[in-house]
Amino acid sequence: MPTRLKVAVLGATGYSGLELTRILLRHPQVEKPVLLKRSADSGIGATNLADIFPALSGNGGYPLQSLSWQSLKKQGVELLFLATPHEVSRALVPEAVEQGIRVIDLSGAWRLKQEQHRAIYGFKDEDSVTAADLTEKAVYGLPELHSDKIPNAMVIANPGCYATTVILGLAPLLLAGLADRDKGIIADSKSGVSGAGKEPTSRTHFVSVADNLSAYGVFTHRHLGEIAEQLHLSTSEITFTPHLLPIPRGILSTIYVQLKQPASPERIEKVYRDFYKGKKFVRVFQTPKLPEIQFSLHTNYCDLGFCLAPDGQRLVIVSCEDNLIKGAAGQAVQNMNLMYGFAEEQGLL
Amino acid sequence: MPTRLKVAVLGATGYSGLELTRILLRHPQVEKPVLLKRSADSGIGATNLADIFPALSGNGGYPLQSLSWQSLKKQGVELLFLATPHEVSRALVPEAVEQGIRVIDLSGAWRLKQEQHRAIYGFKDEDSVTAADLTEKAVYGLPELHSDKIPNAMVIANPGCYATTVILGLAPLLLAGLADRDKGIIADSKSGVSGAGKEPTSRTHFVSVADNLSAYGVFTHRHLGEIAEQLHLSTSEITFTPHLLPIPRGILSTIYVQLKQPASPERIEKVYRDFYKGKKFVRVFQTPKLPEIQFSLHTNYCDLGFCLAPDGQRLVIVSCEDNLIKGAAGQAVQNMNLMYGFAEEQGLL
Amino acid sequence: MPTRLKVAVLGATGYSGLELTRILLRHPQVEKPVLLKRSADSGIGATNLADIFPALSGNGGYPLQSLSWQSLKKQGVELLFLATPHEVSRALVPEAVEQGIRVIDLSGAWRLKQEQHRAIYGFKDEDSVTAADLTEKAVYGLPELHSDKIPNAMVIANPGCYATTVILGLAPLLLAGLADRDKGIIADSKSGVSGAGKEPTSRTHFVSVADNLSAYGVFTHRHLGEIAEQLHLSTSEITFTPHLLPIPRGILSTIYVQLKQPASPERIEKVYRDFYKGKKFVRVFQTPKLPEIQFSLHTNYCDLGFCLAPDGQRLVIVSCEDNLIKGAAGQAVQNMNLMYGFAEEQGLL
Amino acid sequence: MPTRLKVAVLGATGYSGLELTRILLRHPQVEKPVLLKRSADSGIGATNLADIFPALSGNGGYPLQSLSWQSLKKQGVELLFLATPHEVSRALVPEAVEQGIRVIDLSGAWRLKQEQHRAIYGFKDEDSVTAADLTEKAVYGLPELHSDKIPNAMVIANPGCYATTVILGLAPLLLAGLADRDKGIIADSKSGVSGAGKEPTSRTHFVSVADNLSAYGVFTHRHLGEIAEQLHLSTSEITFTPHLLPIPRGILSTIYVQLKQPASPERIEKVYRDFYKGKKFVRVFQTPKLPEIQFSLHTNYCDLGFCLAPDGQRLVIVSCEDNLIKGAAGQAVQNMNLMYGFAEEQGLL
Prior knowledge:
4 copies of one chain form a homotetramer.
Chain A: E1 7-10, H1 15-26, E2 34-37, H2 49-52, E3 64-66, H3 69-74, E4 79-82, H4 86-98, E5 102-105, H5 115-118, H6 129-137, E6 139-140, H7 143-146, E7 155-157, H8 161-175, E8 185-191, H9 206-209, E9 214-215, H10 223-231, E10 238-244, E11 251-258, H11 265-275, E12 282-284, H12 293-296, E13 302-308, E14 314-321, H13 325-339
Parallel strand pairs in A: 1-2, 1-4, 2-3, 4-5, 5-7, 6-7, 8-10, 12-13
Antiparallel strand pairs in A: 8-11, 9-10, 11-14, 13-14
Helix pairs in contact in A: 1-13, 8-10
């Protein structure tokens, strides 16, 4: 039996981190992951992940270690997953790289190449030479677009949850040059509450969310930067409006594009099918069928469907995923699979 | 004490009809309404509304009568509310008018003037001379737009729930000529399940709706016609996408418009405030505050808020209401208040 | 027109306080209430209740004052509602009484006569002479049981939400001496999340509550004391288990009693109907119909129904209410109505 | 590589059947299952399971066959899962057995040995000799109780969802003779809506369930029979009250027992731990920790926890499971694993 990959997860106490831990525990080519906690993590006193998530009870437990590079090296950890706030990731990734440990970072810390977009996170280019260098080298880990660069990346910037639905929904069309960008592109996205994180706030209080829907971060949400960069759009060519849904998980993005020339539904469907040919985790629905959030929950799929107006020019694309899986932990494992030459769907079906 | 108005409700066994009954029961200028049932109504054997809705128990009951024009006349009913399917309303309104009974119809049967839009309901112009005549005379009962014609109307076509949010959200801007209609207008609407009616279907099953979100009726939803007519748009100038939310009631519409010229948020806010000055049931939120569905639940308000892009040209309008109140029963009572010279907010605060 | 009662509400920024404010604003015999805030209230900087609850927007606003006895006296406030934590109520009620202001306290501070039960709140008898005296004089404000003492009370201890359902569900049976207390009585109660208060905690986070149900406070919940006192039971004769439901509001208590002698359903129904004769806010359902949470939402009703086993001895009683209305704000107004000689249902239908 | 087991599923179009199909598709020792449909199944025209459940899209599809014994034999099917109504199972099991095909039946058709309990399903003993014989031979498939008889069973009667939580919660205590049965045992159970099946009814309509809780089937629910039989109780010794929760899946049963003698929590915990020693799918929580529905969702665990009153005699047991997994499909696969000598947890972790 071949040696299994040794990985560590920092931030397993959050929603994405928990999901990641669950997937890794079932992955046949990975050792039981080393689980790390930060002092600032919720449940600070906990020494076992099952104390924080009783859903993990009863299998001998999942001890939490404090982060120590020396200890990680000693345990033979080759790959570190960071499910941490972006400030933490910004600080830790250079350290990990110095130790020769590869990183898949689930935060927004390393996703953006353009300074104007990074500004929204408060990062400045002059932070450090290392940071500038890593910003350059980090690979945006969207396997359907960058499977060429992911295998050899030292640092993977795992995409944002909203961004994944919008980019996968638009890429085929934009790369084929079909969209009339002058008319403006709109992504109206709706997400379950786990996307807002585990921190209890008045906004995540059950009574605030239940029986409700609210828009937020219009024109200012951080994912706008990565959407624009990956799709080669300016931020005035795309309008992105996130909404908070009264469900625990799942994203549906309704995307509006106008085509330069009238097209047939068959033509559009072919563009999508050709683009995602061989991509296991994008499912293109046959028009007029549309994906719904439920269809992709607890899976690593991003589901795409579309409707074309009778005029053949106005196109509505519906893109769905589980924000904790394809939008976070599942995509991270998909990246790991590519980095280590495992089958892309290993541990994800 | 002055004589109170005598009204009847057909279809009290549905969601809008129940809400309407509740409002009328509390209205100080209206007699306890005559409640009518059709043989096709759910709970066909029921002789009391409390048998169908136990929430109405304990106050002596609400007997259901079968519809009889003779009996209505004898009881002195002056106004009939129809909370019935559009085919039923299409058949009954001419009969009521012939009897000299005014009608507020909550269905889509009489909302549309243009034949192309009516076609979606399967109505043909040659149905009957009466129908053609009534189609002409029926007043679209959106009090914020048509308070001049409502008082004397014989037939009020009460607006659709989605349509109310979209029309009220766009009217000030379009009438001021600020919108660049060539760029296309988008209304991305999300509704609670009561909007889909009380009929149990696989689509309204709890397990299908909970933890889900789905788009439907893209480019084909019936409310598109009234939105276009009321806003003087062609159906290719506006794209309307309804979605089914996992909540019992409430609508949020996110509306996207591009302006002909860059404007300031103050300018936009003034346009809205001026337009709705003195209109008690539209609340304009001060930018950057946005309405949420919860804020208008169980009220007759339509709440409006907006965000303007840094470029001053892309405008996102958020419009919320309770689909059963401002989107149906409350608006019907608001129309009744105007028809009979009662204070517009009577029974609605 | 007669002078209206002048009241104040401290704690309008919480869920019960908001509901109370809404009811008082519609009450025909009460002036627009004076709204008071404490420095510790959430939304501390807010000067208007509409800033905290945008649902209250658009009617000129609801200014928040800081508590000052002098100012209250000057404004002619005769009655103070406290929707505050019990420690705060314990401190403020003696002050209010000293000022000659009557109090309806929605907390648990003054509900308990027996020292053993008060201990659970950490109150000691020797706190102060005044406290001991007020503990004695405070009237437990359950109008269906104590309508004789409420009218003249200086201090009303408004009942707990769970307690209201359990006491009203059991009182007729226990007072008639039908229950076999030796076999043990069980109240299995389920409440919506607003009962847990507005404070954001990991327990009230949407993701913790949604798609979940949990039991808590088994054998230790504070409401056990008032249930036992009001029903003249020892705490070993009744087992009370609260659960947290994934809904914003509403309580259903399933209560299990064994009868000393077999009885017929008719006999049991008669006991309940006789006991609640003339009580407007208790609805007794005809067996085998059972109340559901939805039936009493947004009303001041406590709904009761029951099932009797084929053996005629095991009885299951189902008791439902809206925890924010009959379980808090509505009941408080019902008490006010009795204290000031208004019709009991004034403002509550 | 050894030959994999060949199985068929009738009723994959229902909730339990879908869950079962999903588990079987991932099971390493089972061939892709043959999926069968009945003419009466919903989605009657569908020829592929992905047409009914789009969540299954994109893997080449899951064709549905019509049931034919000849065809099943030809395909080498050794084991048939029935996720069908009990009348259907009652009719089909004798046929399957005659063909030499073993059956795991998820309905209530074969669970009951006592005629008095079977009466509730409308089955009569004289139905047929075969039926009487199979009733005798069918094994109640609760692996934690009957792992001795399951391996050789021809017909497994897979337990009811509610029954699984109640039986597993009570068995250790009753078999140890600790419970005072004369005082009565109470199981107050709450289930998600998938337990009510996929049929759209007014009871499963989203608007009826959301923001609600209701009790039903008090003293009459069919699962009472199997609970009583398995625990050797009379139906007057146990009261069972099911409730419908506003969640898609999951059951929590709160069980009340009085002990003959006062005991310590340690004693009780030991009784449970000893009983479930080596049982992989029952997790006993350390008092005072209690399981919640979320903890066991999407797993095959039944989670147990308890609270003991200060008097040491009143015991509250909380028992949770996913009704579609441990309460149906997962338990069925657990039974299959025992029947074919696979590891008990195979395909279930």
